[in-house]
Write a structure and sequence with these properties.
Elements: H1 8-20, H2 23-30, H3 34-48, E1 53-55, E2 60-62, H4 64-89, E3 95-100, H5 102-109, H6 113-119, E4 124-129, E5 143-148, E6 155-159, E7 164-168, H7 171-174, E8 188-191, H8 203-209, E9 220-222, H9 225-233, E10 238-242, H10 243-252, E11 261-264, E12 268-274, H11 281-296, H12 299-302, E13 305-308
Parallel strand pairs: 3-4, 3-5, 8-9, 8-10, 11-13
Antiparallel strand pairs: 1-2, 5-12, 6-12, 7-10, 7-11
Helix pairs in contact: 1-2, 1-3, 1-4, 2-3, 5-10
């Protein structure tokens, strides 16, 4: 039996007909006449030596051979289309698509993007703010800013500065809550977006760094980090703020972190892109800008004693 593949045009005609279960609609999709499409499918059946469709009065249905071939043909053309689009994107040095979590986008990226746009007017920057793990090829993404405890095996990845948490509040609230012990009476804000971390990095852990055995049970809970910080900015309470989410507001003085002890989070942000694309002009420009922006507020981290979470013993 010959293993030579049939002509691509015949397979394409079969794929379209199998998806539509109609020769007429398949012909319309491929911009050919129904007669030309029928000829391609007939030539494919002759190449196989078996029918792929049963021709009924006003419809068609797949034979057993057709049902066997259809999924592979569909996957093959989808893979070919994806690979072709990826190859075309490599020729484009002006578009850049970045994905990051909604919190980081709102609290760190968005306030700074005008600076990147001003420095690189030739780059058309697009953002996808989502916590869903996107595929670089399928979703046509160039750069991902990822946060978590996993690895980026198979990708080019550069770690960003270590992440920590510390209590943050407005300057006005800081006049009331002047000691760690006073926080036992404060309205606390909970950022549940990091509840997945193991070991947990939460209010009881931070209190233990102060020698306080306290597990708060009341307060405002938020599923998104930026919403928790917005609540703190409004004066609603004290949030356990993550470095990446609060640096902008600490730098501007809208929030303060009066207690200079922070807990290192057992996870990290990473700058991730497909292997071999890290030096494409638009990706390199964004990467250099991104890390330069981080360094502008790096001094904030130097103000804290940052304790690795594994070094905090239970009380």
């Amino acid at each position: 039996m010959s293993t030579r593949l049939p002509p691509l045009t015949a397979l394409r005609a079969f794929d379209a007909a199998a998806r539509h279960m109609s020769f007429a609609r398949a012909a319309e999709e491929l911009n050919v006449t129904p007669a030309a499409l029928s000829f391609q499918i007939k030539s494919l059946e002759e190449h196989l030596g078996a029918p792929l469709f049963r021709r009924l009065n006003r419809a068609v249905e797949l034979t057993e051979s057709g049902r066997t071939l259809a999924p592979g043909a569909a996957d093959a053309f989808q893979s070919l289309s994806t690979a072709w689009n990826a190859a075309k994107r490599l020729q484009n040095n002006t578009n850049l698509t970045v994905t990051a979590g909604p919190g980081l986008t709102a609290k760190w990226l968005a306030p700074r993007l005008y600076e990147f746009a001003r420095a690189h007017p030739e780059i058309d920057l697009r953002f996808s703010a989502t916590l869903r793990m996107l595929d670089f090829v399928r979703d046509e993404v160039d750069v991902a800013i990822r946060f978590g405890q996993g690895t980026d095996e198979g990708y080019w990845s550069q770690p960003i500065r270590r992440e920590w948490v510390t209590p943050v509040m407005t300057p006005e609230l800081a006049e009331t809550y002047t000691t760690p012990e006073s926080l036992l009476q404060a309205p606390l804000i909970f950022d549940e977006s990091i509840n997945f971390l193991k070991p947990p990095c939460d209010w009881p852990v931070w209190f233990r760094t102060q020698g306080i055995d306290y597990t708060p049970t009341h307060g405002a809970h938020f599923s998104q980090a930026d919403h928790a910080i917005d609540a703190a900015l409004s004066g609603a309470g004290v949030a356990l703020g993550r470095r990446g989410m609060v640096n902008t507001d600490l730098h501007a003085g809208r929030l303060v972190a009066p207690f200079k002890t922070a807990v290192e989070v057992p996870a990290s942000f990473r700058f991730v892109c497909a292997q071999g694309t890290e030096n494409r002009p638009q990706i390199k420009a964004f990467r250099e800008w991104f890390f330069a922006e981080i360094e502008k507020t790096a001094y904030i981290s130097d103000q804290f004693t940052v304790i690795p979470i594994e070094d905090i013993p239970p009380l």
